[in-house]
Amino acid sequence: LLCWSASRRLLAWPIACGLALLALWLLLRTGSRGPLLALIACPAALLLLPARSGGPRPGAIVLRITLALGIAGALLLLVLPEPVRERTAAVLLRGPAGLLSGAGSEAWLRDPASVFRAEVIARGLAVLRDVLPWGGGTGSFPALLFLRDFRLYPHNIEIELLVEQGWPGLALFVALLWISWRRARALARRDAAAAWLFALLAMAWWNAQVSGDLPANGEVWFWAGMIAGLHRAAKGGGIESRPA
Question: Which Pfam families match (predicted)?
Answer without folding.
Answer: Wzy_C
